[in-house]
Structures are given as C-alpha cells and as structure tokens.
Specification:
Blueprint lengths: L44 H14 L4 H9 L4 H15 L15 H17 L15 H11 L10 H9 L5 H19 L8 E6 L5 E6 L21 E6 L2 E10 H5 L3 H28 L32 H12 L14 E6 L4 H8 L18 E4 L8 E5 L7 E6 L6 E6 L5 E14 L5 E4 L4
Helix pairs in contact: 1-2, 1-3, 4-7, 4-9, 5-6, 7-9
Length: 459
C-alpha cells in the first residue's frame, strides 16, 4: 500500500467542538487583566476622515471607495467593516483539484489514456507518463472509466455490456474516444496544409457576417509650417475589402463491431482521413481564390479591378518560365508599388516563389546557390526566395509574394470560438456504434494586391 506523508501544510479550517477527535487538542489560556474603560473625547469629522483615508490607503483601495465612505459620513467602525467586506470581495477564488480514489487527478489519467490510444492508432512514440496505458484495450479503458465514475459491479460485466454501459453513462469513456481521435486528426490536418497558407495572413472572425477590412491611404508628405506656426491637417482616403466564413463538415462512424473488437486502427484511419479532408478543403478555397477570373484573382473593393491586372502593375506582360530576367522584372514591379494613396513608394520585398507542380524542378535549380565562374553568371536570387509548390495551380503559372506579416495579399480566418477542424461525437442511432462529426468554419479573401506578382507562364 502506498503511503503519503504531508511534510508541508497549513490549516485551511479549524472547528471548536465540545468533544474533539484528538483528546490532546485543547485550548490553553491564562487569566487576563481586568478590562479598563477609558472615556475618550469625541472625535471630529476631520479626524475621522483622516483615519479613513489612512486605512484605505494602507489596504490599497481606490480613491472612489474612500470618497464614498467620507461622503456618507461613515464612522471609523463602519469604515473598518466596509474595508473588510471589500477586501473579501476582491479575494481570489479558491482553486480546487478533483482527485479520484487512487489519489490521481482523473483529468490527468484521461489525457494519458487518450495519448496512449492515439499512439496506438498512429504508431507514434508515447511519453513516459502515457506508456503504462499502451496495453489497455477499449474494454479496459471502459472499465477504468466506470470505476472512477463510482459505478458498482463493474467487474461482473462482459465486454459488450461494459462498453455499452461506458458509452451511455456519465463516465469519461466517450470523451476519451473523442480526445484520442483529435490527437490523430490534428497532426494529419497540419501535415496536409497548403503552401498557400504560408504566404497568407491568419485572422479570426466572431461570427458569419461579412468580415470587412479597412485600408487607410497615404498621408503623403508633411507640409511646411508657416511663419505664424500654423500646421496644416493631413487627410487620407480609405478602402474596404471583405469576405465571410463558410461551414464545411462530414460524418464517419465507428461501428459497434469495431469497438467490441478493439479495432483502433479503423478509428485512426478515419480520423486521419478527416484531418486531411479538412486541410484539402482549405487548400481548395485558397487556390480557387487565386484562380478566379481565369487566374486574375478576385475583384478588389478598392478599385473594382482584379487582384492581378496591368492597372495594379503586378501582372507580367509576357509569360515566361521562372528565370533571372522574369524574376528581376517581378522584383522591380514590387519595389515600385505605391501605397493606397498612390503617392509614396512602399518598396515591397519579395520573399516567396509560388509555382505550379510542373515548374518545381526548374525553380529548385534556379534558386540553388552555385559558385559562378564569372560575375555575369552569378544568380542574384540564390538564397533570397523560398520555393513553395502548389499542385492545384495550372501548369506554367507562378507568383512572387512578399512576407504576409509585412505586406499581406491573402487572408484566411476561422471562427474565433472554433479554430481549425472541430471533432464531436454522439451515440449512433441510425447505425450501431459511435458517430463522429468534423466541422470546419473557414473563409478566405484577398486584402491587397501590392505584395504579389503573377506570371501566367509560357503560352
């Protein structure tokens, strides 16, 4: 039997009772001197106010609280009582820990078991804390959950009845399956991310209404100050871009037979596929955004023109494969971009080269750092651009993007209360087993054109 000994403690509650549990728990006291009452002269209101201010200042209470006591002409006794009440209201809530019969926190046990099941499904290496639970079957986990929930007669139940009872009671077993599924779904979702997300800015939306983004124009230049000291006001224009969230979802079932047969492999495959499906959905939305208007992108709210157009000076006049000259043309066009007011150049710095799948090998050769024999053979773009490959783009298409943290062009958002794919579960009704649902609230849009350049490729 494990014995725990407290070596450091403090009294949380003391009770005075006529018959104590410990006979040696006594109250020791000694006779006190007789109380002497001395009549003191009555205090003036000024003295009382001074004492109240000193008391509230010592307790770090706000001036408004002090003024309230003085305005109602509280006595010093009333002020002390009000101060004690105020301090009690401001005290931090007591934090309690839920501890099971074994002395362990059930939430910790739940997390370790979920990790162990996820590692069994994905083949990952468990942590030292989760390793002891790797040998548990679904029936073992159901029995443990029912026992920790205080259920009686668990040891007499068969596997089917045990699992059925665990799924239909207030035990942690249903949440254990959902938690394990999330641990498989999220890594698969992260691994299948589109490279377009790398060059996009992430945001959140509070609801499904159109998300409006206001862009302010340039102030231009500071104006000379006249001899009289007059400083002229500067004005700027503004433009709005926007998009809204959409909801995507899918269902899959873990059959009753799979649960009874302890077939975690099927559950893991379903969860991983749903994670990849969520990532593919986001990638399709982002790629479709670039492909609107036969590759010209969406219409911008600032000037009602397509994202990539000659008017925006971010579209190549002659299509070509990625090379030094076309990249130089793209970089020059981005450097010469001006702010929303069309006055000040903003000198956009290229960072990413986004290409279709057929341009991957040639682009890797282009961006590889090589030792040139002559200055003329040197590649000015070696090590300066990061290559991103998106197979959803049409063959031959390539783009140059700036850092989205500096000059964002695309933006995507999740519902602030549910970022990323959300996995939920319930008892199956139309089918025997457990139903799982994955929901994704996602939206994307173009917020500016100045940080990107498009080349349609060779025709």
């Amino acid at each position: 039997m494990r014995i725990r000994t407290a070596t450091k403690w403090e009294i949380a509650e003391v009770s005075l009772v006529p018959v104590p549990a410990d006979k040696n728990a006594l109250i020791r006291s000694q006779a006190m001197e007789p109380e002497i009452t001395i009549d003191s002269p009555p205090e003036t209101r000024v003295e009382t106010n001074t004492q109240i201010r000193a008391l509230t200042t010592r307790m770090n209470l706000p001036v408004t609280f002090t003024d309230g006591l003085i305005d109602r002409e509280a006595t010093i006794e009333e002020a002390r009582a009000a101060v004690l009440e105020e301090i009690g209201n401001r005290a931090a809530p007591v934090t309690t820990a839920r501890v099971g019969p074994s002395g362990d926190d059930p939430a910790v046990i739940h997390a370790r078991q979920a990790e162990a099941f996820a590692c069994r499904m994905s083949g990952a290496e468990p942590s030292d804390a989760a390793r002891p639970y790797m040998v548990l079957s679904l029936a073992d986990a159901a029995r443990d959950a029912l026992t920790r929930a205080g259920a009686k007669g668990v040891g007499m139940l068969g596997r089917e009845e045990l699992l059925t009872r665990a799924l239909h009671t207030t035990s942690d077993f249903p949440a254990l399956l959902t938690g394990a599924g999330n641990r498989v779904l999220m890594p698969a979702y992260q691994a299948a991310q589109s490279p377009i997300k790398t060059l996009s800015r992430q945001s959140n939306a509070d609801d499904f209404r159109p998300k409006s983004l206001i862009k302010l124009g340039d102030f231009g230049r500071l104006k000379p100050v006249s001899e009289s000291g007059e400083i002229k006001a500067l004005s700027t224009g503004e433009a709005a871009e926007g998009y809204s969230l959409e909801t995507f979802g899918g269902l899959f079932n873990l059959s009753r037979k799979a649960i009874i047969n302890d077939d975690l492999g099927a559950f893991g495959r379903w969860a991983a596929m749903m994670g990849r499906a969520a990532a593919d959905t986001e990638a399709d939305q982002l790629a479709a955004l670039l492909m609107q208007g036969n590759g010209a992108g969406p219409i911008m709210g600032e000037d009602a023109k397509r994202l990539f157009s000659a008017d925006h000076a971010n579209l190549a006049t002659d299509g070509a494969v990625p090379d030094v000259e076309p990249l130089s043309e793209a970089r020059l066009a981005m450097r010469r971009q001006k702010g929303p007011g069309g006055v000040s150049p903003i000198s956009v710095v290229p960072k990413y080269l986004l290409v279709a799948a057929d341009l991957e090998t040639g682009s890797e050769k282009l961006l590889t750092t090589l030792a040139a024999n002559t200055v003329a053979d040197a590649n000015p773009f070696s090590g300066k651009l990061t290559l991103l490959v998106e197979p959803r783009l049409p063959d031959g298409t390539w783009y140059v993007f700036a850092d989205p943290a500096v000059m964002p062009v695309l933006e995507y958002a999740y519902l602030s209360s549910a970022p990323g794919p959300q996995l939920a579960a319930r008892d199956g009704w139309d089918v025997l087993g457990r139903e799982f649902r994955v929901v994704l609230d996602f939206g994307c849009g173009a917020v500016d054109w100045r940080g990107a350049y498009r080349n349609p490729g060779e025709l």
